[in-house]
UniProtKB/TrEMBL annotation, chains A, B:
GO cellular component terms, A-Z: glycolate oxidase complex
InterPro entries for this protein: FAD-bd_oxidored_4_C, FAD-bd_PCMH, FAD-bd_PCMH-like_sf, FAD-bd_PCMH_sub2, FAD-linked_Oxase-like_C, FAD-linked_OxidoTrans_Type4, GlcD, Oxid_FAD_bind_N
Lineage: Bacteria, Pseudomonadati, Candidatus Kryptoniota, Candidatus Kryptonium
Native source species: Candidatus Kryptonium thompsonii
Cofactor: FAD
Residue stretches making up the FAD-binding PCMH-type domain: 36-215
Protein name: Glycolate oxidase
Length: 482, 482
């Protein structure tokens, strides 16, 4: 990057807020997605929306890419800087500006840590439900950019269900406000919801107004073990059919149970085919009744063991099995590829079985866990990126997994976004007309394609015939890899 | 309209499905919005998405406007056809195609009547919460196009919270599918939510996939009377502050109470300053506790009378007072202008008082009722459109009402949409950059501006200085009025 541009950036944010050392550039060259990395030219730390506006205007003039970044927990390469990029670091915007107890809202800066917001609002008996796996480090800004999900999605929905308003800097530098504290608002197009989940490609959030709800009065946490995933699948279907909406309804397969036990020593039965973690919440009487019904349903479907937490610490223990799944799997092999193929809830047993068949076919290890209640699976390949031959099989396996998810009316991504990692699959899920709709929105908002360019899709004509593989996508930027 | 175009339309949908008699054109020249009307050139009744696609392609070639219409209950002139328009009548698309009890979804055609869907899903113990005032005649397609609200918005949200997927014909004729049965889906931009609430300007829905939830086990309906709206307002604030989320929390002012009593003879105390209708639902134990707490809060705030329904028919009776409000007010004078200025919940007492001051200032009658729980007011002017002098005062009063709502962080429309009636206010609520964002979305999707053109905004440069009045907007089309 031209030193003249670096000087201009320093002039906007102050010299101490532009980092260009090789150590810093390496630190911001990757996110939580294996195999993707590329050096940014600089890391810029803005303090005000006006500074961000000036940076974006400069990017439009000088034609460089701006990659907004919170804590960098993306699992789709969403904040990996492509060549000719600067990283715009937002994680110091950490103020909770207001908790409005009359209107049940919180106004926050984008760098607030998700779990910190949980704690703060719970002091007032309020509740912010979205709880992505990375919540202890992820930022609200990143959650909004990715429309993050979590374990409470089945009953409470995902991030977009809790975003009431945004102050946002558009790619061309205009600062706009959309939404507000009104529960109902139908004035003009719903700009807010097209910005949510736009993966940092349509705007940079500088203030976020969130909806809060009263904290549920009580909850009960249960864990059940089954001989097979099929028994666990039937249990999930029966729970929903009895019109119980658990706050949490998660599963672990045998591979994941073994890894978790090996990691956390919780005393899990390592031969169990599946584990279900279930939490119901609400009024104590309702919670009591639902817990009883769920126990009966589990036993009817052949649960080999069933535990109900008797205290908060016991509940926390049970939840550890699920929360530790990713970390536990990640210890087994050097590279852990965590995906989020999602299907309508009723197809979970079929999809889980298919994933196992595909893993066998390609002779790779795929641990499987995830949000059984909302169809959001996390098939996780345990591999080694240095083993090019195995990596090729892993890629082929995921290609088949995504194809099958799409065939079942599912989606290539329930939580993680498209980013760099799933660009080539997006075109399988949507028609040309729908992809053009997306690209046209990007083109009118970001005519010079400067904001997180190259994520979600390329603004080139759709290539006919074979889609490039992830490996080929990476090879394109070979000279720039760390 | 050129007879050649009429012939081409007949060729697409069949001769019997193109109506051009003056009687038919008059019947489709207006909706539920007073003072707006204009003759369409024809009414076209399509049977398939492909026919709609061909009609839209023809509109692009021949440069006429297509106005999609369900039951025509718009309160913002949303389906009033501007000159050079055809009405595309969708209300015969009445099939409920699927109720999926495993995934808790309903797939419907756009012409399904809202209340009919309620009844059908409730047979399976399921629940579709959105319940706009016009639900006994409104269509789901219209509800989605307007993002309709209703009485249950506070606890359950509005239409957009229940739309999972859409089959939609875009203005240029492409048929696309967005969304699906997945509870979590973050693949690509959220096109679905920008189509919802686009007031028929961005696409025509041909299939709608809706989210259902388990029907609440029980409910209790209460009514409370107060000497003043201020006491009622304090009651609302105290209910929310105690972390109770009623399914319904509605108010009527004294003018409305008097009109309802005169109309429905329910035995309401006609001297009460305000009435609150409250319904809580959920688990019986929770409902019982919440009802008790609410009674105490009402009494603490000086309720002069308090009733709790002891049976379903008593509950229905209590709800009649609220459901009849619009019809009761409409009897008083020839013209009833029902608005939906909305403010953050905590500003309701201030906004209600301001509306009364404004009504006094302009010496007009404004009845006030609405959704106290979610800040969505329905100030309703009782007037006579033939009295030009009074109509001018009514317009001035609403101008001040909207200005004050915006000042409080509110919105010019909580439920009814912008349509024709509120175009001139939209620019007060949003910045130039936000309006340009909306217009750019319209321009890329509908380059010839053929789909419900002239609604929400004009695609002309924003006029500097004074905004045109509603009267001036109407006068523009004077030669064409019925």
């Amino acid at each position: 990057m031209d030193v003249k541009i670096i000087r201009q950036l320093e002039e906007i944010v102050g010299r101490e807020n532009v980092l260009t050392s090789i150590e810093n550039r390496i630190a911001y060259s990757y996110d939580a997605t294996p195999t993707f990395a590329s050096l940014p030219d600089a890391i810029v730390i803005p303090q005000t929306p006006e500074q961000i506006s000036r940076i974006l205007k400069l990017a439009n003039e000088e034609n460089f890419i701006v990659v907004p970044r919170g804590s960098g927990t993306s699992l789709s390469g969403g904040v990996v800087p492509l060549p000719n990029s600067i990283v715009l670091l937002m994680n110091r915007w950490r103020k909770i500006l207001e908790i409005d107890r009359e209107n049940l809202t919180a106004l926050v800066e984008p760098g607030v840590i998700t779990a910190h917001l949980h704690q703060e609002v719970e002091k007032y008996g309020l509740f912010y439900p979205p709880d992505p796996g990375s919540m202890t480090i992820s930022t609200i800004g990143g959650n909004v950019a990715e429309n993050a999900g979590g374990l409470r999605g089945l009953k409470y929905g995902v991030t977009k269900n809790y975003v009431l308003g945004l102050e946002v800097v558009l790619p061309t530098g205009e600062i706009i406000n959309v939404g507000g504290k009104n529960v109902k608002d139908v004035a003009g197009y719903n700009l807010k919801d097209v910005l949510i989940g736009s993966e940092g490609t349509l705007g940079i959030f500088t203030k976020i107004l969130l909806k809060l709800i009263p904290k549920p009065q009580s909850y009960k946490t249960m864990i059940a073990f089954f001989n097979s995933l099929s028994d666990a699948g039937k249990t999930v279907a029966d729970i929903i059919a009895s019109h119980i909406m658990p706050a949490t309804l998660e599963f672990l397969d045998n591979t994941t149970i073994k890894c978790v036990e090996d990691y956390a020593h919780l005393g899990l039965p390592v031969n169990a085919g599946a584990l279900l973690l279930i939490e119901v919440d609400g009024h104590p009487a309702q919670v009591e009744e639902e817990a009883e019904k769920i126990e009966k349903i589990c036993i009817k479907n052949g649960a080999t063991d069933y535990k109900i937490a008797k205290s908060e610490s016991e509940a926390l223990n049970l939840k550890t099995a699920r929360r530790a799944a990713f970390a536990a799997l990640a210890r087994v092999k050097p590279t852990t590829i965590l995906e989020d193929a999602t299907v309508p809830r009723s197809f979970i047993p079929e999809m889980v079985e298919k994933i196992q068949q595909i893993a066998n076919k390609y002779q790779i290890i795929i641990g499987n866990f995830g949000h059984a209640g909302d169809g959001n699976l996390h098939p996780t390949a345990l591999t080694d990126e240095r083993d090019k031959e195995e990596m090729k099989r892993v890629e082929q396996a995921f290609e088949e997994i995504f194809d099958y998810a799409i065939k079942l009316g599912g989606t290539i991504t329930g939580e993680h976004g498209v980013g760099l990692a799933k660009k080539r699959f997006l075109e399988k899920q949507f028609s040309n007309a729908a992809i053009d709709f997306m690209k046209n929105i990007k083109r009118v908002l970001d005519p010079n394609n400067i904001l997180n360019a190259g994520k979600i899709f390329d603004l080139k004509p759709r290539c006919e015939g074979r889609l490039p593989t992830a490996r080929e996508e990476i090879e394109k930027y070979k000279g720039l890899w760390v």
